[in-house]
Amino acid sequence: MSFGVFSYICWSKKRGMKKYLIMVASLLLSVMGWADDKPGLVVGITVNQFYPEWLSIYKNDLGAEGFNRIMREGKKSMADYNYLFSQTGMDQATIYTGLLPVSHGIVAHDWLDRLSGKRVNNTESEEYVEIGEGDSLKGYSPEHLQALSLGCMMKMNNLFSKVYSVGMNPEEVVLSGGSCADLALWFNEKSGKWVSSRYYADSLQGWVKEFNNTSASDFFVKRGWMPLAEEEGNSLMLKLKNKVGIGSSFYYDIAQIKRKFNTYRVLKATPYANTMVTDLAVALIAEAGLGKDNDTDLLTLNYSSLDYMNRDFGVYAKEFQDMVVRLDRDIARLLSVLDAQVGKGNYTVVLTFSEARELLPEELERVRIQGGYFSIFKAVALLKSYLNLIYGDGNWVVDYDAGQVYLNRELIEKNKLAFKDVQDRVADFMVEFEGVGKVLPAYSLTRNAFSGGMEQLMQNAYSQKRSGDVMYALLPAWVPELKDREDIYFRYSKRNKVPVYLFGAGVNGRVRKECNITDILPTLCGLMGIPVSYTSTGESLME
What we know:
This protein is an alpha/beta fold. It is built from 22 helices and 20 strands.
């Protein structure tokens, strides 16, 4: 750019054309103006299992400097994930690569590896073990991610850019940071400390170790959980009343639950998980010096909405209200720190939602909409019996997961059956179950190019190497039944459209009212002034 501008000025002087110099000067000013708008730090925030309508429902309960500030001063667009279902890690991979699962390869929380015959987690790694006070027998890495992420584009453009990722769950954190992150930090349920893996470093940095020594986990465990409004009053009296069952609200004795199950996992089911993520983010911003120089940095934060307890409460439950209010305070504190340490006008925030919460059948029944819980466990049990009757005894179904069924290809080949015919028979059987809206055999996804409808959503989520042989989709009012409260394999959301909020440096003018979630990456690349990944399929939100 500088050489081109210099040559242009020289040519203008030779021609003696003053108007061209004026044009060049205008160009330089516009470039300088863009540079002034370029953020020193981009903060990507995803909130997992959040019901976006809470921002309207509890708007009057929220402060002025958290969510309301982002909504007031920022820009909003409705984004479509544009694939069948969203699940832990899957959405983060899509947001930060600008690609759909069919391309980036993270098609679910887990999938069946046909060569080993084992289920594979989307980030779990035996090679890169955890570092810190965690489980040293396993770790996590982005090895299964098959695409360039935002962090990679930043590093390729400027090696001095820093990329960090933080959250409670390793899948979200690792896939947000991508393969070029300087460090990804997640919560270890056994130790209650923040850990990482050898993929990023040989050991934790000194400041992380010191931060872990503050024993924040134990502090929150001992604190217990009651509504914020009551906690700020006569907390001791209210705590005693709620504990003995005569209080007007709720109280959860976290310490007692922690002793019973001997795990810090219990903190994930409280709003304190988000506070802990914010605490670590605040420390990280200071210790890593994010946004302090001319090299744009990236910090991705992953918040959750009571994690595995998400289905235990209705959307209007006091527990959720308290979670939203507390998260709002955490967001406000984060923005305050960014204002003070990075500087107003020197950072950009993008806020969106992953695996967004759906209304449960019992909630829909109140407005006379009939739905239910679909049990893939019962469905597959009947499917196996049916296939045994048709083809003879055998293990015809080797695995099943969110929205997909894996067939025993070796057994089918051994019996000289046409694989396509078996897929069709399974699809015809599965579609008869109550709650199932659409079933497609995998061969139809590889041989056709669908342009819309449920078929396109299935195709966008399908990987010929990693996905099942038959894919199914539930009707809108139906949700998957879980094995237990903490089931993560069959927990997913069919809710495709979620809000995206852009706030801060460079967010000027108009943004499109509707977009695809893959548009976030090119938008951020534009704000940073770096090239968009050539693999990205999205377009900038800026009009």
